[in-house]
């Protein structure tokens, strides 16, 4: 739906997982959100493994993933605190539990009524079988998707 009177994105969603491409995507999204005056929603998708839940080790996985989410949020907070030009940046951190990164990012982007999604390029081998998250987000055709190498 077209909205009159808006210039650029109001909400930008960026997926972060601690990998180098996701940090580059976050840096790009910070600059875009700062220039546009948009809200930056950083999203860490905490993986859920049904096999781990069946085996009874989901609490260990959940604790380590919570620590990973806290580390990512802390690193982002520390990085932004040292940059005077982004002090006015509005941002929030979301930890979403989900087995499928694309579904989790899509659901949150829909809930936040995101105008853009930014992700890092996949470096793993799994994307050759399942398709990369970036390509699957582009194919969803709901928002402009920027893939940062």
Automatic annotation (TrEMBL):
CDD domains with a match to the protein in the record: USP-like
Taken from the record, one Pfam family name reads Usp
UspA domain residues: 10-149
- Give the signal peptide range: none
Task: Indicate the family of this protein.
Answer: Belongs to the universal stress protein A family.
Q: What is this protein called?
A: Universal stress protein
**Species of origin:** Streptacidiphilus alkalitolerans
